[in-house]
Design brief:
The protein is α+β, with helices and mostly antiparallel strands and 248 residues long. It contains four helices and ten strands; from the N terminus they run ααββββββββαβαβ. The chain folds into two domains: 64 residues, Type Iii Antifreeze Protein Isoform Hplc 12 (Alpha-Beta Complex), CATH 3.90.1210; 125 residues.
């Protein structure tokens, strides 16, 4: 066997040898595999980074105390705005209340919770017999109008706006309704200086209507006749369309 053939045989034998842990090619391959796995894990972890946040278990009205039973925890990706929402790992205070309506399933904004209404508004409950417009719902703004019948036969009724742009905090069925005509209790938030006029309207023969904010002035005769019809049905013995009472 010539020296050239012998060298070729030795080279082929070297290539067929099992690589050892000291082989640079094996070490480089291992490093590449490990780097790829680490990159995939980091990417998945970044995409699955969620924060536990409180959401409303049902619609929460203005003035309701903050209670964990009314909330549920959801995990969401809100890294950039996490400070804007109520986090589930925060301790809730029984002295705090909701100062704006939070709809069912909605994440609870931090601005919706405070020790008291920052605008200093007071809750007033109006019992209304007339059908409400679809736009009248919790969280929306409404205007409250009062129609006062004439004192003498033939006198025209007068219409006065009691409040404009009041926020609706809650709407529920009246628990004191008698007769076939159904009634609703509409709780609104008003400035304290508007409370006396609303209370006076509720305790008089005046008819009170709750309309979406910015609605045209309602007709006096239409309001008064509607209130009288409701009184004839047994829904309102005084003939008024609604009554008002303060809420704590």
């Amino acid at each position: 066997m010539t020296s050239e053939m012998k060298g070729a045989a030795e080279g082929a034998a070297d290539r067929l040898k099992r690589p050892s842990w000291k082989d640079p090619r094996l070490l480089v391959g291992i490093v590449i595999v490990l780097a790829s796995v680490a990159g995939v894990v980091a990417l998945v972890s970044a995409q699955d980074r969620t924060t536990p946040v409180y959401a409303a278990a049902h619609t929460l009205s203005v003035g309701e105390s903050v209670d964990e039973e009314d909330l549920r925890v959801v995990n969401v990706q809100i890294d950039e705005v996490r400070d804007d929402y109520l986090l589930a790992d925060e301790e809730l205070s029984a002295e705090q209340q909701f100062v704006s309506v939070v709809e069912e399933g909605e994440l609870v904004p931090r601005r919706a919770v405070d020790d008291a209404d920052p605008q200093g508004r007071q809750a007033m409950t109006l019992t209304v017999e007339h059908p409400l417009a679809q736009a009248v719902e919790a969280g929306r703004l409404v205007d409250v109008w009062e129609a006062t019948p004439g004192r003498m036969a033939g006198d025209e009724a007068t219409v006065e706006q009691l409040t404009a742009g009041a926020e609706v905090s809650e709407i529920s069925e009246s628990s004191s309704t008698f007769g076939a005509q159904s009634a609703l209790e509409v709780e609104i938030l008003v400035d304290p200086d508007q409370v006396p006029d609303i209370l006076a309207a509720g305790s008089s023969q005046a008819v009170v209507s709750v309309l979406p904010a910015g609605s045209p002035e309602p007709g006096a005769e239409e309001m008064v006749e509607g209130g009288a019809d409701e009184g004839a049905d047994g829904s309102d013995d005084s003939g008024g369309g609604s009554g008002g009472e303060g809420s704590e």
